[in-house]
Structures are given as C-alpha cells and as structure tokens.
C-alpha cells in the first residue's frame, strides 16, 4: 500500500482515538469546557451529615447553584462542618435561609437544598448558615416512632 | 538431587530471560531511529497493529456494552432503579472492561502476529543479515513495533469504551425504555474525569506497554525453529493475558482501593 494511504488511515485512527477521549470527557463524565465559575464560600453546621460527600451538589429550588468542598468535624461542638462553594452569580441568598440535607430519589445520593428565607440581607463570603436540618435517618425515625417519642 | 538441580536451573533460566528482556527493552526504547527514517516505519506498524485491530475492538465493544445493558437492566429493575444502568455501564467499561478486554484482544490479535513475524525473521536469519549490513534490527524492526503498540492500545481502549457505552445505551434506552435523560444524567454525575476516565487511560497505557513488550521480546528471543515460533506465539498470548489480569488487580487496588 502506498505510504500516503497508510499515513491518511493512521491519521484517521488517531483522530478516532482523540474523538473517543472527547466523548468520554464531555458526554460520559460531564466535563465542561468552560472555565470553572468563580464562587464564594459558605459554612453550615449539621448535627448529622449522613451520607453527604464532597463534590455533592448544592441546589436552590432544584437548580444546582454550587457544590460541597469538604466536610470536617468541629471538635468543640461535635457537629459536622460543611464547606460549600456557591456560584458567584447567586449572591443574594437571604441571611435567614436554611441548609437542608435531602436525598434525591429513594436510593439516590444526598445533597444540600437551600430553603430560602425572607431576610433583606444576604449571605456573603465566609458566612455560616443560621439554621440547618440534618440528614433524615430512616432507622432513627422508625426507632423513635416505635418507642413512642 | 538431580531433580533439585534441574529445578534450580529452571529458575536461573527464568531469571536470565527476565534480565535479557529488561536489557532488550532498554536497548529498544533508548534506540529510536531518526524521525525521518523512523516515522514512516512507525506509521506502517500503527496501521497493521492499530488500525487493523479496530474491527475486532469495535465489534466486541458493541456486544459487551449490549450485554452489560441487558444484564444491568434485569438486575437493577428488581430494585426499581434501572435508571442507574447508565452509570453502571459507564463505570464498568471505563474503569475495567475497556482497558482489560482491549488488552486481551490486542494480545490475541496483534501480539501473536508480532511474535510470529519477528520469530520468523529470526528463524530465516533476516535479523542477523541486517546486522551484517550494519543495520541495527532493534532500531529498524523492533522499536517501531514497540512504540506502535504503546500508542495503539490506549486509542483502542478509548474506542472500545465509547462503542460499549453506545451499545449499552442502545439496549437500555432504545429497547428496554430507560429514560434517556436519567441515563446520561446519572452517568455524568457519577463518572469523574480524573479518577475514572484518566485512571482507565493509565491502565490501558500500562497494558499496552506490557503486551507489546512481551510479544516483541518473545519473538526476538524465540528458538529459531518452526516449533520455537509456535511455542513463542503461545507464550505471548498466555503471558500477556496473565500479566494484564494480574496487573489489573494491582492497579485497581492502587487506584480505587481505600487503604
């Protein structure tokens, strides 16, 4: 076979490989080409972080507005301290909003839902949520119900 | 006593062979020919071991993806969570089956051919006549084949994963009626580019390296008889498959294990 034909076919082969990597990156792992949006940091203290994990989503009214950066234990209060990155475009979250841990679907992963308050002031970089609601623990609910509490 | 001695001799033979293969690898990887000479040779090899392997990779990828879709659906629909089929197919293919099955198919399709070709060159004394002419066969014959293998396997593995996911989508979404939005959505939320896709690529690079190295070395080191070529070809397929499966466990433990 002529060298030229081999070159073209091998070129096509490499292009197929690069295209496959692009599909894996963009379509399968959902990587976006746009630069990471600038964000600001909020904190929330939960009595029970449940199955919340870093990189889990943070949403308002079902729209994703940020993600969880890290979860640590507060050694003084023994609460879970969750660090949240919120998109800079959402800069008017009322100061009395609550952070609630919810589960998507019956077996889905857990995420933080911000239930909106009515305060005129809004949360800024480094603020902590005033009120939070911990993860729903089915076993604990059943045992509370069974023991009549 | 006699048995013990032969056992020891066997062990020493294996050790010596390992040492020879290491020196061989160092000689080949270091001794790349000049780009003007080497590049056309590399392209020829990429064509014969990469492009020509594409058909078997695409067909097996398609069927494996379709089987994953079918099996996943029957298992997951027992729990009413058949929407998770997308992430199941994508994670299995990208993390495990893509690199491993590609490497196994590559060893069978291209590795055996490499061994037989180089073994026959050795048996018919083409390699030694090249040396007489002042052409280093390591550079001229072996190096392009080795590098073509390193490059081709990751490309083939990526194609395998993509075709497999497409096959799984065809079965899951088109035939069994999983909602397409949740198929892709679940997949995208659970597959991470760095820890899943890139780790899969690293795996396929390692497998490509090992498979081609074994194939080329077995050909170069074979006993120069027709029986020698046949046993070298068998060894290539057996050693490559075992090395790929063993290394896969080690790499998985390092990449995804929690310790």
UniProtKB/TrEMBL annotation, chain A:
InterPro entries according to UniProt: ABC_MlaD, Mce/MlaD, MlaD_Phospholipid_Transporter
Keyword Transcription: no
Key words, A-Z: Membrane, Transmembrane, Transmembrane helix
Keyword Membrane annotated: yes
Residues covered by the Mce/MlaD domain: 39-116
Stretches that traverse the bilayer: 6-26
Name this protein carries in UniProt: Outer membrane lipid asymmetry maintenance protein MlaD
Organism expressing this protein natively: Marinobacter azerbaijanicus
Taxonomy of the source species: Bacteria, Pseudomonadati, Pseudomonadota, Gammaproteobacteria, Pseudomonadales
Gene: mlaD
TrEMBL record, chain B:
Membrane topology: Multi-pass membrane protein
Keyword Cell cycle: no
Bilayer-spanning residue ranges: 46-70, 146-177, 197-216, 237-256
Source organism, top-level taxon: Bacteria
Compartments where located: Cell inner membrane
Family of the protein in this entry: Belongs to the MlaE permease family.
Assembly: The complex is composed of two ATP-binding proteins (MlaF), two transmembrane proteins (MlaE), two cytoplasmic solute-binding proteins (MlaB) and six periplasmic solute-binding proteins (MlaD).
Its biological purpose: Part of the ABC transporter complex MlaFEDB, which is involved in a phospholipid transport pathway that maintains lipid asymmetry in the outer membrane by retrograde trafficking of phospholipids from the outer membrane to the inner membrane. Probably responsible for the translocation of the substrate across the membrane.
Name this polypeptide is given: Intermembrane phospholipid transport system permease protein MlaE
Species whose genome carries this gene: Marinobacter azerbaijanicus
Gene that specifies this protein: mlaE
